[in-house]
Batch of 4 targets.
Target 1
Amino acid sequence: MKNRICVIFTGGTIGSRTCGDTVDLRDDDKSILLEKYREEYGEDTEFDELRPLNILSENIQPSDLDIMANCLKGVETDDYDGVIITHGTDTLCFTANLFSQIFCDIKIPVVFVSALYPLDDDRSKGVENFAGAVTFIKSVNFGGVFVSFVNYGENCKIHLASRLIAATQISGEYESILKIHFGEVVGGKFVYNENPLNPSIEELQNYRKPCASQKLCMDMVTIQAHSLLNFDFYRFTEVKPKAVMVQLYHSGTVCTEGKEANFKNFLSYCKELGIKVVISTIDSKARTYGSALGLTQSCIAAYDISFEMATVKVLLALGSGNDIEEELNTNHFFERLH
């Protein structure tokens, strides 16, 4: 144990201040987060600070993600017990899932922390999220990418970044897919969640192959299934994407009757244009509804991973020139549930 952690600050709400009814970024290098942590939890850990970005996460561009990734790649992992990355909550899920892939083989734990409110707001859990990350890093002897987050009225949960799903509407709370978190911090100690769908400690300690796909592509359209969704409005006459991802209903279905709302008609249209269509998410062990018969044979299906992870995998495959189906079926960091 080195008692030394590298902290990469990137902005977000956790790096912002409140000005009346507005929340915006701090423009100084003073670390309020580390000050508050030391006041409450002591000074037995040394923190080295890096500041490659100062941005609200909703404004992140591919070049910003490259800057973050290159910053992490430049960290001498032998010098630290782990790395903490501060990040905005709006796009935390995407970046966490992305980094779980491109850093699947990292030798020390990397933990994302964020906050729903600035640190000068009494409702903020930013310091608790950070403290949970510190406790987790000091408790484990394996690498990988994780997320530390406190929901209202709960202990600090540690999530596999590869299983984090989008925040709940309005409340902004975070969960892992199927609500199976990796562990939690209780009384200042990390407690592993003994769920059969979680990877074991031994599995996490094993060698993992690097992810071959490292570059993102933005040439994709995502569509979320909902009642009375009119697919006829999706016409690519001026700009044609390389792929379309359709987020199915929880039962793995989408409308396949009628005219405008019929996904099969849209699928035929995309095939005429040479656009790849990906459907997500599908439970490989679930029964297939009659409305969905034949869909998985007509397009690319993402099995047993979250829609958020499927999105990352498709964008990485497109950007890196790799096969989409192969990327979806490769389990880099325990993202697959079966």
Target 2
Amino acid sequence: MNLLIQGDNVAGMRYLLEVKRMRGKIDLVYIDLPFATGGKFIISNDRISTISRVREGELAYSDELRGPDYLMFLRERLVLLKKLLSVQGSIYLHIDYKIGHYVKILMDEIFGFENFRNDITRIKCNPKNFSRVGYGNIKGNL
């Protein structure tokens, strides 16, 4: 049976734990978090399938948490996810290089350093064609 929960994900996970009794029953979790950018992201009629930092449109989400506040926000969610994950479960967390090292330490604390399996890196092109002031965002393991 499929279930779609719209709303606060903390409330949703508590519902899964307390009402649906799904502790230890989830095999796969994928999280696409805000990246602690400090920005507001908009969806507009001109860009229906894209959320961006354009000025006009409807607020899709606000990414204003940073530093310790961001990590506390994430910690609360990861602790609940650990309760939901089965013994063989996997969690995939999409994050960028600017906050990823902090998130890795947090995940090691919650899930155990020994449970880390891999870092998956994608090569991202620059579809917006804006000029870059730094190095490209390609990362590799040596």
Target 3
Amino acid sequence: MRKKVHKWFFAWDFEKEEKWLNEMAAKGWAMVSFHFWLCTYEFEKTEPQKYLYRLEFLEHAPCHPESESYLEFLEETGIEQVGSYMRWVYLRKERALGEFEIFSDYANKIKHLNRLNAMFIPISLLNIGVGIQNVSLGWGMCSVVSPFNFFTGCINLLLGVLLILGMLKILGKTRKLKKEQSIYE
């Protein structure tokens, strides 16, 4: 038996998405695929608590040779890739095979968060730049195009600000990890 669930998460809330996937698995629904553009997760019925899920933002796309090598290594340890979008991969492992943590230390967790933030910087700056340009065009021109420019500019500005808020959230997580790292290491 299969079912589809439409749900959307912000990229910086990947831990919430991971938690939700593990809650679904605890109820006996194993994720088998993910479609970003439709925000759709596909699940199949399985025994409860069979799988543990983790998400990772890779350095390169999953089809890159380094990523392929890394994913093959994970597969050898019993971890399978069940979905991907851009550089995000959805991984799962059977609970019977033991614990499942991708990042074994603080340095790798921090590196992962920094990699995620590095992706947001150019996207947010681009959206803010395009947004400012479109708002100024829409505001300054008395033509039929100006409301469209103004509207799209506002959307770009909103997306840029939203991404900056996400980056700040990730920075907060990074600072917390660095503080814990200094205490325990």
Target 4
Amino acid sequence: MSQLEELKAAIRGHLDSLDCVIGWEEGYDPLHATPLFIHTEADLDRLNISPLAVHNLATYATGFKGTKIGIVVRGCHSRSIIELLTEKLIERDEVVLFGLCCDGVVSQRKIRAALPADPGFVEAVEIGADELEITIAGEKTTLKVQDVLADKCRICAYPDPLLADVLIGEKHAERPNDVGLACQDDFEAKSGAEKLAFWQDTMSRCIRCYACRNVCPMCVCQDYCIAGSRDPLWMSQENTPAENFMFQMIHVSHLTGRCTECGECERACPVDIPLMLLRRYMNKQVREVFGHQAGITLDKTPPLLTFQVEEARIKERDW
């Protein structure tokens, strides 16, 4: 039985006791997936779990609070669920997790860059063991999955769900938890002036659409967001690099120690701003100073949501 059929069978067995199960289906063309809200067995025919199914469905969990739902989760998505549970933003008995052992998902940005021309409307996509064959205007292009794998998947230490009621697929061997990305190392090696110039140039592209905020599973205070507050007025709607960067710094500060590095903010950005450079950097600081990594266990509160007079890993008295 394939992973997809095994997942369908598992969901079918729970469907009567759930208000909804959230998975993925084919989107507006064969190259894109979109979230699928499963209410009946007939909806299962549209379920898709290919490497094109990239959305972190944990983003929807808080919107269903007070009901009982099922969510299909990969490894990084399960970390988001764990973090939501840790912060008591959702209740464990209100969610059934269908876990997928994950071999990675693709980056649409990398696919666009690898195609010989603007993809326009994609006619067909054939997914093999290690290749994608994409048909556009009758012309076929073959891409290696490894070449278009999302960056987060290249360094993922948790490809299998850390929390699941049903587990689909075979678990992977344990992976190292300290693998870095060349782009991150290159960025952190820049001088302060170079980093400032980089962000001034990059944030000039930002259109303040708030897609990064809206898609983030941990950004749950959108109705009270500081970016929308007018009393007090913390930020203007002026679209300048300074104001845009101010919003991103507030956003990343609110996520520090809570971000599970699912990459949704960067994926959703319509102007391709490398937002994960900020998230990974701040998470690295929390890991080094507090020994904390978000979404790994249910019994660890993010350090910036707690207060201790003296932190065990900060030797103030030695200064």
